[in-house]
Specification:
Blueprint (H helix, E strand, L loop, with lengths): L2 H10 L2 H45 L11 E7 L1 E17 L3 E4 L6 E7 L6 E2 L4 E6 L10 E4 L4 E5 L7 E3 L5 E4 L4 E8 L11 E6 L6 E9 L9 E9 L10 E18 L4 E3 L2 E8 L2 E6 L1 E5 L3 E6 L6 E5 L8 E6 L4
Parallel strand pairs: 1-22
Antiparallel strand pairs: 1-21, 2-11, 2-15, 3-10, 4-6, 4-9, 5-8, 6-7, 8-10, 11-14, 12-13, 12-15, 13-14, 15-20, 16-17, 17-18, 19-20
Length: about 325
């Protein structure tokens, strides 16, 4: 083969073109890989969204009626009972009793010869309390009795045996017994709820748990401008054993009494659109019932219309009309 033919063959091979073709092939492969990766990511995202949407749809499926959860409530029956409204006050035991001093029946002076009584002793009118010797030195002894002018209790003996006393010096003091009474004050805002003749119960600090009874006998016709209250008096009735003048009293004054009242626990009464209502437990469902209420004492409320004796009213539980309920606690009124 000649040199010319060999040269021609070499010239016919275009190395630059060949290099360009190889670069294009590598670029196409790179683009292809990128496109494949994008497709994979898009496919994964689509699958993820489909799964989550399916889950949301499943959660959004409404619960069947027979799967509704009942609300736990407490209920109590409307009951017929004697209703009392009580006003609590502070008071004190007092009396109209007087103290009487006993003097010796002598003209000038004398010596206390004998004392026959002691403090706290109950005596009767005419009893001899002491003897006084009014004689002078060298004279014959003659006893002068000191006699009680009234019945009562000896509260003070200000002399001792052998002491020289005059006709104006008391030998003893007698507390004249009288009926005890309870004195207190009632705030102005309660004056419209009280009247003479009302019943009261009382308790002392000295005898906790022991109740005394009484009747309201007096209401002052004026109101104290400083305390905004009026004076009242209670006459004890029944056993007064243990009551002493000056004792502190916790006074419960019955300001209202209704016999055979239809009552419900105060917690059962609510309001709805300016109406007083209760919710009745009716075969597993709460039913709203409009009622007319009377007095309340903080525990029970009187119902004057809208309920019947024995209706189970809901006293605790967040319900509305038609709520499914389960009564987990009930209270029978006495």
């Amino acid at each position: 083969m000649s040199d010319d033919s060999t040269k021609k063959t070499v010239e016919e091979i275009d190395f630059e073109k060949l290099a360009n073709d190889r670069s294009a092939s590598r670029f196409n492969k790179f683009i292809t890989l990128i496109l494949v990766a994008i497709c994979v990511v898009l496919a994964a995202f689509i699958i993820y969204r489909v799964v989550n949407i399916a889950g949301d749809v499943a959660l959004a499926v409404p619960v069947a009626d027979n799967e509704v959860t009942a609300v736990n409530v407490s209920a109590s029956p409307a009951a017929i009972m004697d209703f009392s409204k009580i006003t609590r006050l502070n008071a004190e035991v007092t009396s109209d009793g007087q103290s009487v001093s006993v003097y010796p029946d002598i003209t000038t002076s004398g010596t206390v010869a004998e004392i026959l009584v002691s403090r706290g002793q109950e005596i009767t009118k005419g009893d001899i309390i002491a003897y006084i010797d009014p004689s002078r030195p060298g004279a014959a002894y003659k006893a002068s009795p000191v006699v009680a002018k009234t019945s009562g209790i000896i509260t003070e003996i200000p002399v001792t045996v052998g002491q020289l006393v005059s006709a104006s010096q008391p030998i003893a003091t007698i507390a004249v017994p009288s009926e005890l009474k309870i004195e207190g004050e009632i705030p102005e805002k309660f004056l419209g709820t009280v009247a003479v003749g009302m019943n009261a119960t009382m308790e002392t600090v000295a005898y906790p748990g022991k109740l005394y009874t009484g009747t309201l006998t007096y209401i002052a016709p004026t109101v104290n401008a400083q305390t905004r209250s009026s004076d009242i008096e209670i006459k004890p009735t029944g056993d007064t054993t243990g009551l002493k003048e000056g004792m502190y009293i916790r006074l419960n004054l019955e300001t209202e009494h209704i016999e055979n009242a239809l009552t419900v626990p105060e917690s059962a009464v609510r309001t709805y659109l300016n109406d007083n209502i209760v919710y009745i437990a009716d075969n597993g469902v709460a039913r709203r019932q409009v009622v007319t209420v009377g007095s309340s004492n903080g525990v029970e409320t009187v119902i004057t219309s809208g309920l019947n004796e024995g209706d189970m009213v809901i006293t605790a539980g967040n319900v509305t009309d038609g709520t499914s309920i389960s009564v987990v606690a009930s209270q029978e009124n006495n």
